[in-house]
Amino acid sequence: MKHIPLRSCIVCRQQKDKGDLLRIVRCGDGDILLDISGKLGGHGAYVCKHGDCMDNAIKKRVLNRVYKCQIDNSVYERLQNDYYRFKTDENGN
Ligand SMILES: [Zn+2]
């Protein structure tokens, strides 16, 4: 039987297949990015691809807790922009 790696969403804590989650990554220089390709190196965190989890992660500043630091509003704004672009791209297909 093939082992499917499960990851927990940092917002709702549900375990899901990686394909159902978005990866957020903190790079070595401390920058935090939405990792659409899933290939960036760094400390990864996972959020549900569909539903409200990404919006909640941004609204509730969940990443401050995950990365144990104060994250700038501009970082959250960029994550939100990237997330909306991702959703638009996905719906456009
Ligand atoms: Zn979730």
Care to describe what's here?
With 93 residues, the chain is α+β, with helices and mostly antiparallel strands. The protein has a single domain, classed as YlxR-like (Hypothetical Cytosolic Protein, Chain: A). It is built from three helices and five strands. The strands form two sheets. The chain has a three-stranded antiparallel β-sheet with strand order 4-3-5, covered by helices on one side. The longest helix is centred in the C-terminal third of the chain and has 20 residues. The radius of gyration is 13 Å and the shape is globular. The model has no long low-confidence stretch (mean pLDDT 93). The site of zinc ion has 6 residues, from loops.
List the domain count as a whole number.
1
Q: In angstroms, what separates the terminal alpha carbons?
A: 32 Å
Q: How many helical stretches?
A: 3
Helix content range of the residues, please?
25-40%
- Hey, roughly how much beta strand do the residues contain? 15-25%
H/E order of the elements? Answer: EEEEEHHH
Largest sheet: 3 strands, antiparallel
Q: Give the full name of the CATH homologous superfamily.
A: YlxR-like
